[in-house]
Recover the amino acids of this structure.
């Protein structure tokens, strides 16, 4: 692969920064978002470092979508939300904050009134870790 030494998500893949890992395979990696917009918010990334949808290879984006479906199913079983967004952001106006292509697996709840450009709020690490264990059990 082509890790970027300054990329936080490349460091997560390499194990240099801790995460609540949900799943990995030879092309992708999935983990809990530490600033969850809703309970069960997870991220799926390709191992390939590419900033956004314009830079990512067709093979990497295809593998990421397949893993996002797998994670979405496990999150659905675990959190039982009313709905779920698969979301992907490109550029500052779209509120992209990490320049490594990623898909949000974002559970939605009736009347959660979540704005798509949500502000980043620190999560409760104990609650996120406990939820990661439950989601993994549903993979
Ligand atoms: P975006 O705004 O689409 O670029 O989303 C980036 C997401 O990544 C955001 O919801 C917060 C999350 N995030 C940022 N830094 C870290 C980190 O170090 N660990 C984890 N697990 N998530 C992170």
């Amino acid at each position: 692969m082509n890790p970027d030494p300054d990329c936080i998500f490349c460091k997560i893949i390499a194990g240099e920064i801790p995460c609540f890992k949900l799943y990995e395979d030879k092309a992708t990696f999935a983990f809990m978002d530490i600033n969850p917009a809703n309970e069960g918010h997870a991220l799926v990334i390709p191992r390939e470092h590419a900033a956004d949808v314009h830079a990512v290879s067709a093979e990497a984006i295809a593998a990421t979508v397949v893993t996002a479906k797998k994670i979405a199913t496990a999150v659905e079983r675990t959190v039982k939300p009313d709905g779920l967004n698969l979301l992907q952001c490109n550029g500052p106006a779209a509120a992209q904050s990490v320049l490594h292509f990623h898909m949000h697996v974002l559970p939605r709840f009736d009347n959660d009134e979540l704005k798509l450009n949500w502000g980043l709020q620190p999560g409760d690490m104990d609650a996120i870790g406990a939820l990661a264990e439950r989601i993994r059990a549903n993979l």
In short: The chain has a mean pLDDT of 96. The beta strands are 21-24, 28-32, 42-46, 83-87, 103-108. Residues 28 and 46 are 4 Å apart (CA to CA). The pocket of 2'-deoxyguanosine-5'-monophosphate is lined by residues 8, 17, 19, 31-35, 43, 89, 95-98, 120 (CB under 6 Å).
